[in-house]
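Dear colleagues,

As part of the handover before I leave the project, I'm documenting each prediction I ran so the next person doesn't have to rerun anything. This entry is a single chain, and its sequence is reproduced below.
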Amino acid sequence: MHPRDQTIFALSSGRPPSALAVVRVSGPQAGLVLTTLAGRLPAPRQANRRLLRDRAGQPVDDAVVLWFPGPASATGEDVAEFHVHGGRAVLAALLATISIIPNARAAEPGEFTRRAFENGKLDLTEAEGLDDLIHADTDRQRRQALRQLQGLLGDRARDWRERIIEASALIEAGIDFSDEGDVPAELRAPAVKAIKALHNEIAEVLAAQGQAERLRDGLVVAIAGPPNVGKSTLINQLARREVAIVSPHAGTTRDVIEVQLDLDGYPVTVIDTAGIRETEDPVEQEGVRRAKARAADADLVLWLTGPEVTTEEQASRTAPVWMVRNKIDLEEGVSVVGAGADKSFAISASRGDGLPDLIRAMVEFAAEFFGASEGALVTRARQRDLLRQASGSLRRSLELVEEGEELAAEELRAAAYALGRLLGRVDVEDVLGAIFQKFCIGK
């Protein structure tokens, strides 16, 4: 049996127990599920209060039900929703009753959204935006994901694809009339003009400043430095909770500890690394190796020192390094000299002195790092790669149009194909599983 012939169901709200819970059903048997439990179908898209009963006629819950006949539904199929009390026993009885309906089964992660995609309710860029919205941790991530979900990139890509197809039709018409004197030239001129405009528009999107893809993952800041200088204390202050062990003994942090922060809406991952020093302890040696590797991959390194300023083993210079001199409460009035550092700060991680200035500078760094990502259309490497392919094909078509319409037409077909992949309309089976398996069950 084809999966589309099966009816899927899942809890679409939070983990029980809860005040209310939502169970969604989608597929050809959704109407049967609803009538089995609620007695009859309610009016489409109108909330109705019903006493739900199981197959034996025993009450399950006093609930609100909704009926969305396809194709005017979220998935494009018949959809039923049950808004019930969120107790475990209620949900167990409800789901058990649904599961005995023929061809009804529990949904897999992302299956509701995948069916919506397959039924043309949203394109792949919108599905990716929904995935980002589900996993958004900060307000800026939420706003960026919402723009994707609203289809801003998809709308542009559909427009570009239609215009490429129109230009391709002109080029191919020139091929058909190649034996009729100046007809090909008359058709070629508007096609070339259209292709140049398309190439410029896509190039502008690709050249837009900002790192929207990185906004999804966040800025990585590594706190590095010698042992026992207060790295764990600093990360605890930034996180405002004890996430790292604070100890006066050198070598306490043996591994890499990560904390997710929201700095003025920017997602930031702060890494507390093992103290970098020479040691004979094999476990601590591995911690130092990992610390150096993570610091080398970070976008910003906070090199922490104590009263005795140490600059010898600063982290890799592939990322900016800020000298942060800690424990100024133990030696007031000493200025900070960070040899080779991009910026220098004086703080007391335990008392909080200087932390507002450090955090403010981190926010400014994040704003500059992400740039104008809020207005960006491209938020994933997949999208950028396909737009680059389309742009490259358009450029090559312009170079080839004078040599032969056939070659130019082939490049235009390649550009339209790349945009079709961007929208998920052609040859995207290789990426669908990777995208939808990240969704939660019930979405």
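The chain has 14 helices and twelve strands. The radius of gyration is 29 Å.

All the best with the project,
I.
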